[in-house]
Design brief:
232 residues; alpha+beta; Glutaredoxin; Glutathione S-transferase Yfyf (Class Pi), Chain A, domain 2; 11 helices; 8% strand; GST_C; GST-like protein; Glutathione-S-Trfase_C_sf
């Protein structure tokens, strides 16, 4: 049985209102998935800034909730079966919040499975590949003389972007109606700007991607969620 008090994370990031969902995050592509979803659903929550510094994500308090030391993570004091629930992994959080709110998972069981497959596509492909591309293009990967890692992630990023581009032919959102799959995918597309990698992936060659990004960013809940929690 999970008890709210069993998470020492609340010692380092105390809850002002322990009756609402507690979000522990930072505005990275993975982090904003949770804040955007919370804003989209209207579920009451409280955001806590957890920096990417070891002093935060590797602290014993944060590890009490997420042993994988990555943001985002949540505690819902009103979890299933009448007990509080702590969760990590952004995809798992999106699924949980969709079930809790009854939103952004489609209208039928078939919709749900189609949306879930695109969520898994992001978790297993778009996120890891674009993240590694960003590392090799912008950060320490530039120091590696062997070009093969950079080329590997660049080529895979291009392939995945083409998959998204083709899927968007004739529709506004990746799985039909707006869903958690879009909330998962688009922050990573937006992240290419941060990495300075739009040119190297040939962004302008994918006719459907910029309109997709623009539609997403035009949503008021997305605009709010991208700023939560504020990095200061």
């Amino acid at each position: 049985m999970t008890h709210f008090a069993s998470y020492s994370i609340t010692d380092k990031w105390p809850a002002k209102d322990p009756s609402v969902i507690q979000l522990y995050s930072y505005p990275t592509p993975n982090g904003v998935k949770a804040s955007i979803m919370l804003e989209e659903t209207g579920l009451p929550y409280e955001a806590h800034l957890v920096t990417l510094a070891d002093a935060d994500v590797k602290s014993s308090e944060f590890l009490s909730l997420n042993p994988n030391n990555k943001i985002p993570a949540i505690i819902d004091p009103n979890g299933p079966d009448g007990h509080p629930l702590g969760l990590f992994e952004s995809g798992a959080i999106l699924l949980y919040l969709a079930e809790k709110s009854g939103k952004f998972m489609g209208q039928t069981q078939s919709d749900r499975h189609r949306i879930t497959q695109w969520l898994m596509f992001q978790m297993g492909g778009i996120g890891p590949m674009l993240g590694q591309l960003g590392f090799f293009h912008k950060f320490a990967g530039k120091e590696i003389e062997d070009p093969r890692p950079r080329e590997r992630y660049l080529n895979e990023a291009k392939r995945l972007l083409n998959v998204v581009n083709n899927q968007l032919d004739g529709q506004e959102w990746i799985a039909g109606d707006y869903s958690i799959a879009d909330i998962a995918i688009v922050p990573w597309l937006r992240g290419l700007d941060f990495y300075g990698a739009r040119d190297i992936v040939g962004w302008d060659e994918y006719a459907n991607l910029q309109p997709y990004l623009d539609r997403f960013l035009a949503r008021p809940a997305v605009q709010r969620g991208l700023q939560i929690p504020s990095p200061g």
